[in-house]
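Weekly sync, protein design subgroup
Attendees: M.S., D.O., the rotation student, P.L. (late)

Item 1: inverse folding check
M.S. brought a backbone from last month's batch and wanted to see whether the design step gives back something sensible before we order anything. D.O. pointed out we never logged the input encoding, so this time it goes straight into the notes. Structure tokens as presented (471 positions):
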């Protein structure tokens, strides 16, 4: 952690002043530092400093750096936080300088192990594609892709996720990752980013740079890389690149799954027959079949439903932090529904027996919520030690947050992870993992629910528990 006595503070940014910690000094200075959140929690950050007073060269870069920061800000404020773009934590301006605080990730691609197999390479390319898709939402591209600007973020199962940073900041147009057209003076664009990805693939597999250990590649991967580094007119377009990589990842993942299950004594014929038999048993029901009217009974059933799914979702093999957010918020949504139901009963003068039952269930739930809050306090301590932002979790303790909003945000992140990691395809081959299949089906049906409608929640639970195959 930064020594604050040797740091300059610019509002919520601390910049280390010790000369030995200077990471880079060209037009843009890069130093180590800290970012202080509204809750006074401090986290390590990378601080980029742009001197603007009396420097026309520096001023010409203000637009690019401001664009970079604004893109990070938009990604941060969107419905889900980007897993593929380094976050801009804060932007501050003094009379002479711009200060940009970015999250600090420990390992860039130079520090990360080179590809061990084709899937490692495809996962890297997929992360870069997802980052470019995020940028395209705002009509932009990267413009400076190279190993130093790609950082290892985390693993989802066996899949590594990478983040990108430093858009448009390259002063060296001669580096080997820059496309020929940009070296010749043309402006960078999505096509030049694709070329950079192709060159990064050559580097990552030991075909570029000092690494002499080359990864043996099948013809499909070689063809993919070649298509990215062709002249501009013949280069693969972005959509085709995205589709090809998605198809190759799915193919390799399925091959690995098949090898795993065959090693357990299941031959391909038996696996195929098993899947077909399961699919025949599924009687798919559209979520609209379960729509019903709002009344005190459906509100109470909704409360019971959210409590039940908080238990049923636990076996799901996804990011722990997002899953915990989903589980905790569903418990608080359950309590919210019970409060709403009790209010409705008081207004319409419901019968004494129903109110008594409701109050008894609510008392049990409130006792459980009290225990959950104690667990959240312990969980927050653990998250702080890991350097994870605990602001959302703390708001559960203060009852200052709409639990359904957090539930939807966590649900969106988990649905995206399920799609990214092909969990459904993997579970088609599983025989024993029925609890995860049940959890996955719950996620699917909740994701299809309309927030403004009520459903026959009991019937949904009965239907899902009867399925032994991903719906």
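Designed sequence read out in the meeting:
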């Amino acid at each position: 952690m930064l020594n604050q006595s040797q740091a300059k503070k610019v509002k919520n940014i601390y910049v280390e002043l010790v000369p030995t910690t200077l990471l880079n000094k060209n037009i843009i200075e890069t130093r180590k530092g800290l970012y202080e959140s509204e809750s006074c929690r401090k986290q390590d950050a990378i601080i980029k400093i742009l001197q603007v007073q009396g420097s026309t060269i520096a001023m010409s870069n203000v637009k690019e750096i401001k664009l970079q920061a604004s893109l990070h800000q938009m990604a941060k404020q969107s419905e889900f936080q980007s897993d593929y773009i380094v976050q801009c934590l804060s932007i501050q301006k003094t009379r002479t300088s711009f200060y940009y605080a970015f999250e600090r990730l420990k390992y860039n691609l130079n520090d990360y192990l080179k590809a061990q197999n084709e899937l490692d390479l495809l996962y890297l390319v997929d992360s870069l594609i997802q980052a470019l898709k995020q940028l395209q939402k705002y009509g932009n591209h990267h413009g400076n892709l190279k190993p130093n600007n790609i950082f290892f973020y985390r693993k989802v199962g066996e899949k590594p996720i990478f983040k990108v940073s430093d858009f448009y900041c390259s002063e060296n147009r001669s580096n080997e990752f820059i496309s020929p057209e940009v070296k010749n003076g043309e402006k960078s664009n999505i096509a030049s980013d694709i070329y950079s990805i192709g060159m990064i693939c050559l580097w990552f597999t030991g075909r570029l740079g000092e690494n002499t250990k080359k990864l043996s590649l099948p013809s499909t991967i070689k063809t993919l890389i070649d298509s990215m580094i062709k002249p501009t007119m013949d280069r693969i377009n972005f959509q085709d690149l995205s589709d090809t990589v998605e198809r190759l990842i799915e193919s390799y993942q399925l091959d690995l799954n098949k090898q795993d299950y065959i090693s357990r004594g299941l031959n391909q014929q038996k696996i195929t027959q098993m899947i077909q038999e399961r699919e025949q048993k599924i009687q798919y029901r559209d979520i609209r079949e379960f729509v019903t009217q709002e009344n005190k009974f459906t509100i109470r059933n909704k409360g019971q439903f959210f409590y039940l799914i908080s238990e049923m979702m636990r076996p799901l093999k996804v990011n722990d932090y997002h899953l915990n957010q989903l589980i905790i918020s569903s418990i608080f949504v359950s309590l919210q529904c019970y409060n709403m139901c009790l209010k409705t009963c008081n207004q319409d003068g419901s019968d004494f027996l129903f109110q008594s039952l409701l109050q008894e269930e609510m008392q049990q739930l409130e006792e459980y919520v009290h225990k959950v809050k104690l667990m959240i306090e312990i969980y927050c301590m653990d998250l702080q030690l890991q350097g994870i932002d605990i602001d959302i979790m703390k708001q559960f303790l203060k009852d200052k947050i709409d639990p359904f909003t957090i539930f939807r945000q966590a649900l969106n992140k988990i649905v995206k992870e399920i799609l990214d990691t092909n969990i459904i395809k993997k579970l088609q081959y599983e025989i024993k993992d029925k609890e995860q299949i049940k959890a996955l089906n719950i996620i699917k049906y909740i994701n299809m629910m309309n927030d403004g409608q009520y459903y026959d929640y009991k019937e949904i639970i009965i239907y899902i528990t009867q399925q032994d195959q991903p719906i």
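Discussion: Residues 352-385 form the longest helix (34 residues). The radius of gyration is 26 Å.
Action: P.L. to compare against the previous round before Friday.
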